[in-house]
Design a protein that fits this description.
The protein is α+β, with helices and mostly antiparallel strands. It contains ten helices and 13 strands. α3 runs antiparallel to α4 and α4 packs antiparallel against α6. The N terminus is likely disordered.
Length: 393
């Protein structure tokens, strides 16, 4: 029905003496997007540009002075672009479905409109519009026609706009396939390169040297995260942490270590009824985790039932516990700059077809990974949200 509507409207002739156009003229997709910057299509197009920018950043990383920082920026760019692309394409698919459903529901209205347009369009010459009653009748019929014509034109314009938007959204989704494939391939390469660069890095300062034997003893002797955190100061040698600067002024402004959503707040019980003093962040698969501020790696590795854990110490008597990673970077005792990679989340990146499907995104597959964040000040846990900025949710 939609294709037939397009064809018939395109064949409809101008209406009336002013030759008001009722043709469905094709409007370039770029022009539509420029005129509606807040549409789902525009959001997806902007995301594609962000992915292309990340590709450029990835190419430049080989010659960068700080390869790790350049690769970190590339991974972040890819992740942000892919996330925006997912959201934009999902909204575009939903919008297209809504428009198609609306057009199907207006089939009778469209048929009547086409009938009127075709009837007027079959008028071969102006004299066929002369009224049998003479000049007065002709004048009255002309007034009636001039009153009806704007309404017909408005209806045709609305229909034309909907059809153009459907065509633009469909073309956008078709064009996005290659961009998505390039983005998914690019972010995978960037993560692999970043992992290798972190393994080869030797320029980070060391604050202390780990005593591996004491670490093993502490892990085997503790049953809680609290007990392990309390004993961390006993498993180091040559610790020079007395000169660590305070970050109290940054309280409430630190960025989250990973992009995602707060799934559970501090003290909120999970499905099993277990309440912990930290927060749980839902992330996308393979998301990059970074240091929210300059900090020393106090511990990295498996711990209790938390999976892979990295414990950062940004200042004396303050610990940031990041648990649930799949890959951890760095060595115990290294001092990381703010924004430095800490590790990667687990999971498998969605395939192109899954991303293009709004059903898959809404089925809960978008954020299957979770990062547990606990902040300990002194010997007691504090709400992590008092340290991190919550303006992004």
């Amino acid at each position: 029905m939609i294709r037939a509507t397009v064809l018939l409207l395109a064949l409809a002739t101008p209406l009336g003496a002013q030759d008001a156009p009722l043709l469905l003229e094709e409007t370039p997709a770029d022009a539509i997007l420029a005129a509606a910057e807040d549409t789902p299509a525009a959001a997806a197009r902007a995301a594609a540009a962000q992915i292309e920018a990340a590709t450029v950043q990835m190419d430049r990383a080989d010659g960068a002075r700080d390869r790790v920082a350049a690769l970190t920026d590339a991974v972040r760019g890819y992740e942000a672009g892919l996330a925006a692309m997912r959201d934009g394409l999902r909204d575009a698919a939903i919008r297209e479905t809504e428009l198609r459903r609306d057009l199907r529901g207006r089939e009778d209205e469209v048929a009547r409109l086409l009938g009127v347009l075709q009837g007027i369009g079959r008028a071969a010459a102006p004299e066929t519009l002369l009224h049998p009653a003479g000049p007065v009748g002709t004048a009255r019929s002309g007034m009636l026609l001039s009153a009806v014509a704007p309404g017909l034109a408005a209806n045709a314009a609305d229909l034309r706009g909907d059809l153009q938007e459907v065509a633009t959204l469909r073309q956008l989704q078709e064009d996005a396939v290659q961009t998505l494939q390039e983005g998914l391939s690019g972010v995978q390469q960037a993560r692999t390169a970043l992992s290798q660069a972190m393994a080869n890095r030797t320029d980070l300062p060391m604050r202390f040297t780990e005593d591996a034997v004491r670490t093993a003893i502490l892990i085997s002797a503790t049953e809680t995260l609290e007990g392990f955190a309390s004993g961390l100061s006993e498993i180091t040698e040559n610790d020079s942490g007395d000169d660590m600067a305070s970050i109290a002024a940054d309280m409430g402004t630190l960025p989250f270590p990973v992009a995602g959503q707060v799934l559970r707040r501090a003290g909120q019980p999970d499905a099993a009824g277990v309440a912990r003093p930290g927060i749980v962040i839902a992330t996308r698969p393979r998301a990059l985790v970074t240091a929210p501020t300059s900090a020393t790696i106090r511990y990295r590795g498996p711990l209790l039932d938390y999976g892979l854990v990295t414990i950062l110490e940004p200042q004396a008597d303050l610990l940031f516990v990041l648990a649930g990673l799949d890959t951890v970077f760095g060595e115990i005792g290294e001092v990381l700059p703010a924004g430095a990679p800490v590790g990667l989340m687990g999971g498998t990146e969605a395939e192109t077809g899954d991303i293009l499907s709004p059903i898959g995104e809404r089925a809960g597959n978008a954020r299957p990974e979770t990062l547990y964040i606990e902040v300990r000040q002194g010997d007691a846990p504090v709400d992590p949200l008092t340290w991190f900025s919550t303006d992004k949710g």
